[in-house]
Amino acid sequence: MSSNQIPDLFEKALAISDQIAREAYVVRECGNDEDLAQELRSLLTAHEQAGEFLEDSAIEEAAAILPSVLGSNLIGQFIGAWRVDSLVQAGGMGSVFRATRIEDDFTQEGALKLVRVGFETPELVARFSRERRLLATVEHPNIARLLDGGTTEEGLPWLAMEFVDGLPIDVYASTKELSLRERLELFDGLTEAIAYLHENLITHRDIKASNVLVDRAGRPRVLDFGIANLLDDAAPSQHTSADRRLSLSTTSPEQLRGQAISTATDVYSLGVLLYQLLTGDLPYRLSASMTAREIEELICERVPPLASQSIGAAPGVQESAGAKLRPGALRGDLDTIVATCLQKDPNRRYRTVTELRADLQRYREHRPINARPDSTVYQASKFVLRHWRGLAATIATILALAVGLAMAVWQADEARRQRDRAQAMNEFMQEVLAEADPYEADLNKTVREALQEASELLDARFQGQPRLESSLRTSVGSVQLSLLDLETGEANLLRARDLLQPLVSSDNEQLLNINANLAWLFFEREQYQDSIAAYEAILSQFNDGHEADFRATTYNDLGLVLAEEERYQEALDNYDRALVLAPKSKAVPATLINMGYVHDGLGNLEEAKDYYQQAIDILRSRGEDGVGADLAYSLNNYGNILSQQDRDDEALPFYLESLSVRYQVYGEEADAVAFQHMNIGRLLLDMERPQEALAHLDTAVRMFPKFRDEDSIRLRVARASHARALLLTTKDLELRAEAIDSLDNVVTALKTDSTVRSSRFLGQFVGWLEEARSQGSTYQPQKNQLANQKPKLVDGI
What we know:
Elements: H1 6-14, H2 19-30, H3 34-49, H4 67-70, E1 78-79, E2 82-90, E3 94-102, E4 107-115, H5 122-135, E5 146-151, E6 157-162, E7 166-168, H6 169-175, H7 180-199, E8 202-203, E9 212-215, E10 220-222, E11 229-230, H8 253-256, H9 263-279, H10 292-300, H11 307-310, H12 316-321, H13 327-330, H14 333-341, H15 353-364, H16 378-382, H17 391-411, H18 415-434, H19 447-461, H20 466-482, H21 486-500, H22 509-524, H23 528-539, H24 548-564, H25 568-581, H26 588-601, H27 605-621, H28 629-644, H29 648-666, H30 671-686, H31 690-703, H32 713-729, H33 733-751, H34 756-775
Antiparallel strand pairs: 1-2, 2-3, 3-4, 4-6, 5-6, 7-9, 8-11, 9-10
Helix pairs in contact: 1-3, 2-3, 7-9, 7-15, 9-14, 14-15, 17-18, 17-20, 18-19, 19-20, 20-21, 20-22, 21-22, 22-23, 22-24, 23-24, 24-25, 24-26, 25-26, 26-27, 26-28, 27-28, 28-29, 29-30, 30-31, 30-32, 31-32, 32-33, 32-34, 33-34
């Protein structure tokens, strides 16, 4: 057997991923020809060390083989009009050289791509020819241009491309320590280029970090069209799992299985690269020891972790790529965008790169993304709910109930009947929890709709099982309250109480928990007297047999309602009871925040600041686990204290950080987000920056009606403040008239509202209205004479 057979042996050996099987193949085919076997092993070893354990595309073959073997003898010689200057990359079948085109009247630098002598197989020659044909049709600033092409005197095909002096996109992002926004802007340039290719009916098929260099101007440049093809030519049989040209770390399931290729194939690879840019890791980790079946199972069947779960998980250099980003920054929209790209089924991905690019643009502009059209679903994926009623607790409660029931039924006398009940409950749980799975759920379905379907399932599944149905309705209703879906939440909770009440005593903890949720419902509707009465009725039933955490929760929540009614000492007494009952609870920061709120109301500003600071310190010490609603509240309230001390410039950063945290934990559209925009807008009014205030107040008055009734104090304060900002900024007479009407409507409503919080704002709004009327329709921007009046809305828990 001669060395002329090496190309064929090399290709076939590469097709064997299992190392033991590959060595057996080498021994079998080379027989006693040790020189041949050694040369073949050297090529295979060099290929493995090049960074991919499978064959790369032609533009960037592995760089480990000795230059003398791969064509360094060409340096200084001419290929066509090109002088070969230096070896850039080399691999088992070809090399890339830096070269200079020398003509009579000009010189030009380029990258010369050349097949290695002895490897000019018909398939590889056809591949070069196809790549040259495709590149000849491409003209885009983010794609390396084809400059020239031809064949050598030996008949070897070559092509010359624009030389890109830059770093791979992932290395560039890491080296430059790019922020999240900068990484997304960089990625946008890449998606623009791929969208251009698709518009010209070209799929790239091998998008990966090493095929995207970032030049000295910071512009991403797409390279290597070695396995690209026209969409019209993309027959399923062309690329199979045995095609070693594929870079498996970025290969889509349909490529690996040899199925039809489409633009969705490039969307998948872009998703892998975006995952890598955001986390510093790849969604799948492959190794040379994996068998073909293991690789196929990993890529085609296993769901990778969410991007937010993968930051910092990769060792070494990869870890540093994501070191500047935090998991909280990726949760929600970015997780959803990446997960949509990585769907196993091409039909469930973005239909086009343009759609992917548009959603990333929406994310950067803080607008709802199309991968999740109904913005109310955002609250569900994060499920960062009000204090001590988070989704984790809800799911844990349901699962604990399911496990407890499953164990109990085996001990019951009626084992078969109970087992059937447990199985029915588990099936119900699987259906409901699947709706919250970002990889399996219907992304066009809102969580409110999913919970409504769960309510209907309860009607059908658990007739005649009142205890079970009551428990599940309590959990579903609690989540609905947290999403401010008050009507449907109330219906589930009332039904849960009706089912359970005839079966238990009045002090049953499950029944008291239902009543506690209904008491909180009154609070959400700003019916504070009814809420206080409901909580006090629950407290009268407490005894030492009830769980300490449940009792602490109830005392805390009652304290919050009392504080809203400015019954501050009573509120403090309840908070003290909560801390005594659960001194080591994770919810201690929430109680500290509430105590700060009370001292704020009493005018004890330094004491209030101290409680807020304690809460902030505890939450920050928890790292990412502390980034939640409590941190958002404490930051806002601390800033509010500074504002009351006429330190507005110091307060603003706390308000803005609180807004940032709310975006992370609630998403783009949420009552808590609207609240913070309102507070920032009002602070900017106090700082005599009405134009900036208007932008935040615009957002608040647009968003609040989705979550609050017309008589909500939050909505009224936002509308009055928005009117004030308009009056201080606009010359448009019609807008000024509308602003005065809006302000007048709020004042009229507050005069008929006897609640404490309403009276807190009435004086300020009356002053604004009188000033506006005195000016008539004339635009007279002036200093905010009421800046020292700072009635406030402070976050409680």
